[in-house]
Hints:
Elements: E1 8-13, E2 16-21, E3 26-30, H1 32-40, H2 47-58, H3 62-78
Antiparallel strand pairs: 1-2, 2-3
Helix pairs in contact: 1-2, 2-3
Amino acid sequence: MRMRSEGLSWQEIDGELVILDLTHAAYLTTNRSGAFLAKRLQQESSRQQLVDALATEYEIGEDRAGTDVDVFLATLAEKRLLA
């Protein structure tokens, strides 16, 4: 999976990310971990790759990382930001 590239504009502010969807006139703001995942999703990544990367980067357990990844991916899907 990966994020859409068409019709999106990104702005990083103090480690957090604001994603503007110019196609659907919507936006999404993320915290630092969301920004980390969004950057990983600029290229094709599996759920497990995202979980592993998040767990390593933030030194959290795989269960917690999995939950966070699932919530983030659901939000992206709801906002039609996945390719």
